[in-house]
Specification:
The structure holds three protein chains of three kinds. Chain A is mainly alpha-helical. Chain A has a single domain, classed as Helix Hairpins (Orthogonal Bundle). Chain A is built from five helices and no strands. Chain A is elongated. The mean pLDDT of chain A is about 90. Chain B is mainly alpha-helical. Chain B has helices at about 1-20, 35-50, 55-65, 65-100. Chain B is flat and about 70 Å long. Chain B starts with a helix and ends with a helix. In chain B, about 25% of the residues are buried. Chain C has one domain. In chain C, helix 1 (about 5-25) runs antiparallel to helix 2 and helix 4 (about 65-85) packs antiparallel against helix 5 (about 115-135). Chain C is elongated and about 60 Å long. The relative contact order of chain C is 0.18. Classes of the chains: A mainly alpha, B mainly alpha, C mainly alpha. Chains in contact: A-B, A-C, B-C. The interface between B and C is medium-sized, with 28 and 39 residues.
Chain lengths: ~130, ~100, ~140
């Protein structure tokens, strides 16, 4: 019973963890480099969700002050402000890896990691 | 075979993380350790310090403006990195066009 | 993408997207939003033009050199606002102590340097998104 209430109360955290595991599965099992980038993006999103739901408060409002009222309860504004940095870094990393994938495609003619490894293996064995 | 091994490992990892998540302070409670003195300072003193009703905007543009300058630098560096990686592609394309 | 419906809808909807982005940037300190989200909306409008009307049309609206200029200019503007704090004898990026116009709570022109910095970040993010997208596709 305790476990069930724990799961229901922390459903945001568990959703974030599930997204993280889905992203990790995508990165591990797909040989296509673009799909690996998509998996990394899913993992980043799960971390953002986890961080923002730490600051969540039940029945609270978004942190915009109304000066006519005094009884406002706000959610924690600090995680939401800090996660903006994470979003910017995620964008930069995604764009950089996409440009590297374009270069890899020019060099090898494929973005499938298994085939690239096969080509490189032939080179190093001989 | 390989896939089944991955799935089993990841399910085990998920269970491990859920078991540790349940021990955390409950989500949505105002008495969480994350709702600490820093948060109370931002909520109570934002109007006095900056005259801006949006607390998040006050944090990222006033209290932590130096951090935001770093973010702008990250964007700048990402443009430099992408341009330097893609530069050879343009040169090659342009040469091919000039030849034909 | 050469499709009549996509082209027509793009032509109709782009001005509204841009007005919405500018609204988010200018009201960043009194309502939810801010420089990052507004800049992303502005940049997406140009990306929509590139995708549906072609690279030529988009670079006619904002060329590569213009967006590079906007990028560098906005970050220099940001640093200059910070240096105002040093000149007035305070720390880098001081708001109230540096003598910016604080105004009334809830006005658009108020709260010192926050709208100035929000506008700088909005221009920076919009031009960065546009430049990155055009650098990656570059079909000319």
């Amino acid at each position: 019973m305790e476990i069930i209430t724990g799961i229901v109360d922390n459903i945001n955290y568990i959703g974030a963890l599930t997204l993280f595991v889905i992203g990790l599965y995508t990165v591990l099992t797909h040989a296509n480099l673009l799909k690996k980038v998509i998996g990394i993006n899913i993992m980043e999103t799960s971390i953002f969700l986890f961080f923002v739901s730490i600051g969540y408060v039940k029945l609270a409002e978004s942190p915009v002050i109304d000066t006519n009222r005094v009884d406002q309860v706000f959610v924690n504004p600090l995680p939401s402000a800090l996660i903006l940095t994470g979003i910017v870094v995620a964008l930069s990393v995604t764009v950089y890896s996409l440009s590297l994938i374009i270069k890899i495609y020019e060099e090898y003619g494929t973005i499938d990691l298994d085939e690239i490894m096969k080509m490189r293996g032939n080179l190093s064995d001989g | 075979m390989k896939k089944a091994f991955f799935i089993m490992t990841l399910v085990f990892l998920w269970g491990l993380m859920v078991a540790s998540i349940i021990q955390m302070p409950t989500s949505g409670d105002i008495n969480n350790p994350s709702y600490n003195i820093t948060t109370h300072y931002y909520i109570n003193k934002t109007i006095r310090d900056t005259n801006a009703p949006n607390i998040i905007s006050a944090i990222i543009n006033d209290y932590r403006a130096f951090d935001t300058l770093g973010e702008a630098t990250v964007l700048f560096i990402s443009i430099i990195a992408v341009s330097s990686v893609m530069k050879n592609t343009y040169l090659k394309k342009r040469e091919e066009k000039g030849d034909h | 993408m050469d499709d009549l419906i996509v082209r027509t809808v793009t032509k109709w909807i782009v001005p509204f997207i841009q007005v919405y982005g500018i609204f988010i940037i200018l009201h960043g300190h009194i309502s939810p939003g801010g420089g990052f989200s507004g800049g992303a909306v502005l940049g997406s409008s140009i990306i929509l033009i590139t995708l549906s009307l072609g690279y030529k049309k988009a670079s006619g609206i904002i060329s590569h050199s213009t967006s590079a200029l906007l990028e560098s200019g906005s970050i220099i503007w940001y640093v200059l606002i910070g240096i105002v704090g040093i000149i007035s004898g305070n720390n880098f990026l001081t708001n109230r102590g540096a003598g910016f116009y604080m105004g009334e709570v809830g006005d658009v022109i108020s709260s010192g340097m926050i709208p100035l910095i929000t506008v700088a970040i909005g221009i920076k993010v919009a031009s960065t998104v546009i430049t990155l997208f055009h650098t990656i596709i570059e079909e000319d």
